[in-house]
Amino acid sequence: MTWTALAHATQLHESGRYSKAPSGAIKLILASHPQRVDVRSNLGAAYSRLGRYEQAIEQYKQALALDSHNEAIRFNLALAYYKAAWFNEAASQLTQFLAAAPKSLPQRANAIRLLADCEVRLGEYKKVIALLSPVAESDASDRTVAYLLGSALIGDGQA
Which residue would you say has higher pLDDT here, 156 or 28? Predict the structure, then answer.
């Protein structure tokens, strides 16, 4: 019964029918297998896509408690915090992600930009300048980096 529920929940998730995914199928699996990191992560993703960020955050936190070295889940937790406008928490998770994630990981570039945006919003301009200056030097055409770095420089009084 549980594996049928997992297959059904996975099919709903993959087909983009997120409003159905957090319902019975995934919850049924977690009731009998609360240690399933993958199921908790998928439930967090479904909640996030529905804009139910607090519930997504809770699922991602529980998944990380079970697998603290899973950087994909940490990145998704940071995204949920960011989308919920909890910038301190997002910055903390993104900092941990960047410290642990391999340099070759594709999400690193997005994590750097998201962290910089969080820090701009928090008024931590010097952190943004330190984070983005090397990125700007290596790719002067990146408009997102230019905007965030420029905002930080202005905020820091370096017009």
Answer: 156
Q: Which domains does the chain have, with CATH numbers?
A: 2-87 (1.25.40.10)
Angstrom distance (rounded) from CA 93 to CA 37: 18
The pLDDT assigned to 39 comes to: 86
Distances 81 to 77, 105, 125 between C-alpha atoms, Å: 6, 21, 20
Nearest to 117 by CA among 107, 127, 108: 127
| pLDDT of 1 | 40
Measured between its terminal Cα atoms, the distance across the chain in Å is 63
- Give the Cα separation of 149 and 119 in Å (integer): 11
> Mean pLDDT for the chain?
88
- What pTM value is reported for the model? 0.84
Q: What percent of the chain has pLDDT over 70?
A: 84
